[in-house]
């Protein structure tokens, strides 16, 4: 009812109401941008989860992630020379078979965080990860994506500490390697979000408001 009054007020010139791009006043409830693919079809709001590798010690941060299917995890490498490799829960510090994810090694002297390796999450199965450099895995440089309730990162870490060897997978596979152009990481180690994912954002608020106005006019 108050919306109708507001529209009427606007129509009679008592209240300014504009429908220009990007100005939704306080009438729209859907000003949040919606992502669309290049055909204009709305797509779910996939997001990228950032994991820093060796940023301030021999660990992944964060090392425990819940990630939705379709989202990506972007690993950012810091000095000196780390990797991301996939093991099973029960046999840490060793490749999870011939299809194990592996980033390869990223020797980094400075500009930590620029070198990146990104994996897309295709299902909700747990992904157990470790750094296959030296004894880093045994020292606790491990992580998990989507752990099941009965298996924790803590238990994986304990088992890793007992591993007799730290082995790299044979093949670099499963992710996409890239690097960001500097400057990218400020002194807090926080970097800007990646850009150019092939999607764009279109605000529908103005259009929704326009349809609502037409509807109200018809009803009246
Ligand atoms: C919505 O109303 C609030 C409070 O009246 C105001 O601060 C805000 O700027 C308004 N937003 C827009 C987009 O006009
Ligand atoms: C956009 O998404 C629709 C629905 O998922 C799909 O059919 C279409 O092929 C997509 N277009 C492009 C260019 O990706
Ligand atoms: C992941 O989700 C589970 C179940 O909802 C929750 O208990 C756990 O705290 C979450 N972990 C993180 C790191 O958000
Ligand atoms: C990085 O570590 C790997 C594995 O230990 C090693 O083969 C490679 O030579 C190292 N690279 C540099 C530049 O130190
Ligand atoms: C690690 O090894 C010790 C000694 O062999 C053993 O007592 C302990 O249960 C092991 N821990 C795990 C988590 O496997
Ligand atoms: C998800 O699927 C893509 C395409 O098949 C593949 O390249 C990628 O490695 C998969 N991600 C994981 C974590 O296995
Ligand atoms: C680094 O960037 C983040 C996000 O933009 C910001 O919150 C933080 O204050 C910045 N830190 C410094 C030291 O500039």
Taking pLDDT < 50 over at least 5 consecutive residues as the criterion, the unreliable ranges are 8-32, 195-209
Q: Report the CATH architecture of the domain at 48-179.
A: Sandwich
Q: What's the CATH H-level superfamily name of the domain at 48-179? A: Cupredoxins -  blue copper proteins
The count of helical stretches stands at 3
Amino-to-carboxy terminus distance: 12 Å
CATH topology of the domain at 48-179: Immunoglobulin-like
Structural class: alpha+beta
Strand portion, in percent?
A: 15-25%
Bound molecules: 2-acetamido-2-deoxy-beta-D-glucopyranose
Indicate the radius of gyration in whole angstroms: 24 Å
Broad CATH class of the domain at 48-179? Mainly Beta
Shape: globular
Helix content: 10-25%
Major sheet: size, sense and barrel closure?
5 strands, mixed
Number of strands: 13
Notes on the protein architecture:
The chain has 220 residues and is α+β, with helices and mostly antiparallel strands. Helices cover 15% and strands 21% of the residues. It is built from three helices and 13 strands, in the order αβββββββββββαββα. The protein has helices spanning 2-11, 153-161, 205-219; strands at residues 34-36, 48-53, 60-61, 64-65, 72-77, 81-82, 85-87, 106-107, 115-120, 127-130, 142-145, 176-179, 200-202. The longest helix has 15 residues, at 205-219. The protein is globular and about 75 Å long. Residues 81, 105, 107, 133 line the site of one 2-acetamido-2-deoxy-beta-D-glucopyranose.
């Amino acid at each position: 009812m108050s919306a109708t009054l507001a529209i009427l007020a606007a129509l009679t010139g008592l209240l300014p109401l504009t429908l220009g791009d990007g100005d939704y006043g306080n009438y729209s409830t859907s000003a949040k941008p919606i992502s669309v693919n290049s055909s204009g079809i709305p797509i779910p709001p996939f997001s990228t989860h950032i994991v820093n590798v060796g940023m301030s010690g021999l660990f992944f941060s964060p090392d425990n992630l819940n990630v939705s299917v379709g989202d990506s995890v972007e690993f950012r490498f810091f000095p000196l020379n780390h990797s991301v490799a996939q093991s099973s829960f029960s046999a840490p510090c060793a490749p999870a078979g011939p299809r194990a994810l592996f980033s390869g090694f990223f020797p980094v002297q400075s500009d930590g965080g620029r070198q990146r390796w990104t994996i897309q999450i295709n299902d909700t199965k747990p992904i157990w990860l470790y750094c296959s450099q030296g004894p880093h895995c045994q020292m606790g440089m491990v992580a998990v994506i989507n752990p099941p309730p009965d298996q924790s990162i803590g238990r994986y870490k304990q088992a890793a500490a007992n591993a007799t060897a730290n082995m790299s997978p044979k093949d670099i596979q499963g992710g996409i390697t890239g690097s960001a152009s500097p400057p990218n990481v400020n002194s807090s180690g926080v970097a800007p979000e990646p850009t150019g994912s092939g999607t764009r954002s279109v605000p529908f608020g103005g259009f929704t408001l326009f349809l609502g106005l037409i509807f109200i006019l018809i009803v009246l």
